[in-house]
Amino acid sequence: MDQAAKPGHDDVVGSNRHFLVPVALFLSGCANISGLSELDTVPIGGDAGTSPDVVTAKDGSADAPVDAPVDAPPVCQASETDCTDGIDNDCNGKTDCQEPSCTGNGYDCTQEVANAQFGWYAATSKPACPGTSVSTDLVTAITPSASTCACSCTATTTCPATASVDNDENGSCTTINNTRPLTLDNACHAASFDVQVAAKSAPLAATNSCSSKSALPSLTTTTGRICKSQLPKGGGGCGVGLACLPVKPVASFKACMIMPSSGVCPSAWPNPSTVGTSVSDTRTCGACGCAATGTCSGTASFYTGGACASLVASVALGGCAATGVGPTTVGSYKATTTSNPACTNNSPTTAVSGSASLGGQLSLCCAN
After folding, report:
1. Are residues 131 and 163 both part of a single domain?
2. Where does the pLDDT of residue 334 fall: very low under 50, low under 70, confident under 90, or very high at 90 and above?
3. Higher pLDDT, 209 or 132
4. pLDDT digit string, tens, across residues 276-332
5. Same domain, 130 and 223
């Protein structure tokens, strides 16, 4: 075959084009038959800026991206915005305590305390908490005003309700004419008996008692405030076991770690304090000694009238008393008693047992 008879390159390509079209149609038909039409094909290599190329099934599932996505670069701030987040916020290669802006504002690398929470502590006042801290008022000290209880006694004396009066004929209380019971209630009572020159009655027996009272010494408490910080436990830029924390005092606050009362302060937080959220007072007083010594006295008044009118004689009860009148018929009487309660305080003070302590105790380890 001569050179003129050989097919040219364009002829071959053109001939192949005519061949590829039926083949493509054939494959498409095979895909429909075999189920391949369930996948949509996406051309590989999209334009710049498009999502990574994937093969996606019609049911929504996807194969892995052909090209792995590139992470977005960090957003750099103009300065270190948070000295406790462990992030180089301004992208200058310095994190938290490595930044002069942090250390210049009171942050420093300091030892962390296990299971503790950072906070601010004011021992003797309750100022407003800094930032977004949550305040908890607390008791920082308890001082009793004395070490002994004061005792006091209150006396009660009960006098009899009745008394028997003997009417004497000769004024010496030896010849008894008759005996009359009198009600001792200071009320007017109708009567019909004779009164002569003297009257005699038995001593008025008093019933005495004393009630004691003890007073615990008062407590003087000093109150302060804990501000539990919402900051993270500590930032970066420090060595192992250290954290970037604001350890310098703020106004009247100290920087402290707040932990249970059983905690032991490490050397980096050397100033311990024990505080509480309440006062637990278990103090009691010893028994007070009081002795009762009250007495009773009384008076009987006799009247000729029936409504305690026309007084004829008054005598003191509890012995022999002259009436000062001859035989007189009594139409009414009135008798009353007066008590004289008294107590002897045998123990003006008594010992205190038990103690007053802080309730809801917390241990503070402070850096300054």
Report:
1. no
2. very high
3. 209
4. 889 999 999 999 999 999 999 999 999 999 999 999 999 999 999 999 888 899 999
5. yes
Q: How far apart are CA 243 and CA 245, in angstroms?
A: 6
Range of the domain at 117: 107-144+218-283+359-366
Highest mean pLDDT among 73-77, 122-126, 222-226, 298-302: 298-302
Please state, in angstroms and rounded to a whole number, the distance separating the CA atoms of residues 138 and 223: 6
Contacts of 159 (CB under 8 A, 6+ apart): 184, 204, 206, 207, 296, 298, 337, 338, 339
Query: Phi/psi class of residue 97: alpha, beta or left (left: φ > 0; alpha: ψ in -120 to 50)?
Result: alpha
Three-state SS string across 30-54, please?
A: HHHHHCHHHEECCCCCCCCCCCCCC
Tokens encoding 187: 């009320």
Q: 276 with 315, same domain?
A: no
Asked if residue 166 has pLDDT above 60, the reply is: yes
What sections of 51-137 are H helices per DSSP? 100-103
Task: Report pLDDT for 231.
Answer: 53
pTM metric for this prediction: 0.54
Question: Can you give the pLDDT at residue 190?
Answer: 96
Q: Is residue 4 part of a domain?
A: no
Distant-in-sequence, close-in-space partners of 351: CB < 8 Å, separation ≥ 6: 148, 149, 285, 286
Judge if 159 and 181 occupy the same domain: yes
Pairwise CA distance, residues 332 & 343, whole Å: 37
What mean pLDDT, rounded, does the chain reach? Answer: 79
For 346, the 3-state DSSP assignment is coil
Flag whether 59 is in a domain. no
Instruction: Answer yes or no: is 115 within a domain.
Output: yes
Q: How many separate domains does the chain show?
A: 2
> Are 227 and 326 found together in one domain?
no
Whether residue 52 is contained in a domain is answered as no
Is 303 in the same domain as 277? Answer: no
Give residue 125's Cα distance to chain centre: 17
The rounded distance, in Å, linking the Cα atoms of 274 and 139 is: 9
